[in-house]
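Input set for joint prediction.
Command: fold jointly, output tokens.
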Amino acid sequence: MKKSLKIVVLAKQVPDTRNVGKDAMKADGTVNRAALPAIFNPEDLNALEQALRLKDRYEGTTVHILTMGPSRAADIIREGMFRGTDGGVLLTDRKFAGSDTLATSYALSCAVRKLDPDLIIAGRQAIDGDTAQVGPQVAEKLGWPQITYAEEIMGFERDELVVKRRLEQGIEVAACPLPLVVTVNGSAPECRPRHAKLVMKYKHAKTLSEVQEKTEDYYLSLCETRKYLAIPEWGVADVDADPEQLGLSGSPTKVKKIENVVFQAKEAKRLSASDADMDALMAELIASHTLG
Amino acid sequence: MANFFQDNKDFQYHLNHPLMKKIVELRERGFRDKDVYDYAPVDYEDAVDSYNRVLDVMGEICGDVIAPNAESVDHEGPKVVNDRVIYAAGTQANHEALARAGLYGISLPRQYGGLNFPLTCFVMSNEMVARADVGFENIWGLQDCAETLNEFASEELKREYLPRVCNEAATCAMDLTEPDAGSDLQAVMLKAHWDEEKQTWLLNGVKRFITNGDGDISLVLARSEEGTTDARGLSMFVYDKKHGATKVRRIENKMGIKGSPTCELVFTNAPAQLVGDRKMGLIKYVMALMNAARLGIGAQSTGLSEAAYREGLKYAHERQQFGKPIIEFPAVYEMLATMKSKLHASRAMLYETARFVEVYKLYEAIAKERKLEPAERAEMKAYSRLADAFTPLLKLMSSEYCNQVAYDALQIHGGSGFMKDYPIERLYRDARITNIYEGTSQLQVVAAIRHVTTGTYLNQMMEYEKTDFCPEVADLLKTQIKMREDYAAAVEAVVSKGDGEYLDFHARRLVEMAGHIILGYLLMIQGGSDEDYRRSAEIYVKAGYAKNRERYEYIMNLSTEDLDAFKMVKEDC
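tokens >
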């Protein structure tokens, strides 16, 4: 029975699409990222909680976050540290820009090879794209087995990790040896809160690019004496990736058309509790293909 | 998704108050912890940054966990199973969320596992918790007991108990009241005797109305000197729940704060340790504990006012009558603006008091490490006096205001407010205890009146008058000066009679007059930084002037003989 694990959590910084205002979309139909606050993708937080529970349970287990994005995505790694991770890596390079899920999965899998974990946990999907493709694609690129829609990683039984899956028709319990990719559902337990002492300990954690932007000398020297405050940044060269498979050139997805959906219904309709009204409503819903 | 820290700009005003720099530097003793603890600040800016970040965590838990649980906690309440208290599920979840975020021990020293935050931050946390769930604030706020241990207990006791609060989120209780000793704690009878054989103190007796009575760590006021009947026979003890020598006989069925377990406790040969010196229990330690608890009620009341004001405001915007939202009607917007001014005034007083308390307590703590300079000693005394004067005034004004704010917020809801469908019904019930427990409003007046007669309040008014106010409040300043003159004249008129009963009769009026003036000044000072505060100052000072005139007229026209008409009520039966 394996006691300690090396876990990598795949996490993404996303625009908070749960509270959209009028300026959430640009005229061309793309997301106006500047107008929406950047947050830790919610299901990735569920994934992180599962990782931290394994760390609590199996001594010696480490948890690192791997995220790909611009410089400010380092926030995600700090957020993880505030909740109990051992650190993380920011995968950032201009050559990654414009990647679809395939190119992203490729880039992440290259970084995972370098990190060499035995368990990858990711959120089921991100709230900006809603594809649920990245986790499974990373597993495919690595040639690892995967368990999707996980609600709870229950622990080891002999050499297999037992995972409870939440499926449409019910619950399924699956077991699989390592290495393994698990993607976690939003129905899994919420992530623990940030811990006060960890927040204070890691708040000055920075990537090299962030350190270079900073001017306050004291905090810089702090980063030198406290090695745990350094967040590594990896570019294409650091993960030995093939530039052709990255960015726009590595992304076969082409957006054909974007439609602006405008809700037509303006007011509520009042129905009596009579059978006639109910039948009329059912007929209307079936006619509009809302039901059936 | 609510954050009770981020959605309230007043916290930034008070975190960045000019006195905070001094407070932080005194508390951090020149930032000496920075090389010992990886979470200690390196300078003032770093410290304030940490306060902001950690209070942000606190605000998120209050908004996302505690507030959504409040309704179910109110319905479910705690229960007694096998002589032990079982919290409502929501209460337990609240406690666990705060524990997991490492927030317990927020202002205890780092050497015991605490965060060493200023009292101001602890008070902010109390206020946010109260806004989310008034009753739960009691459980969170009872960390006051740990503060009292930190202040008065031996190093040995501190090492035993404080890390449990910080690292294991042990909860506390203060066991003072008994069936025959409520406001008059000198009558406490719970017996403590030294057992030679077991080499420990043993407690026997009954305590009543004990908030969180089944907490892990209890501070117990008990009679250690056999044969005594007054305050000098009482000592303070610390009892650890692990001994299993107390039983919860019942939980009170209360009108409000239903999630907070109010227990009747039976002590049977309960082993306990003496805190500090014998015979000083009531005279010194309970007084300190009560002052801290009164500041806590100030925070609880302010948080409640915040919640009630928001409920009233929301409903007034949503509710349409006569073709428009009811906030459009003068009768409604007047209520809301007045509620807001009382809320702002309560908060201004709350943090002013917290700062006064903190400065003198920090000097007291430093005095245990080194001899204070004469200037520091003088400062300590001055702040100690102000803290003593402001604490009962805060408790009185803020608890009465939260009742008024909750009353008006419910009134705005009309008939719906009387139903269980809206949170305001709960807030209205919760408010009612704030001006009763930890000393009724009447007892706050007893504590405050000597600062009327000795001039502490008057001197502080003159001190505030020297402020370089923003030009927009020039007219208000004139009003305030007139109010101060009326106040001084009314005090003189009452005191000059040389009649104690006559002074007691008018005491509340005089204390409230002082309160209106002092809170008015605090709002005017705050008005320099923000138009919103200026509007509250305007509303508050104008109303305060009218209220003080009423009291002034009443005092000036009531002779000592007029009291006879009131006294006659004693003949009724």
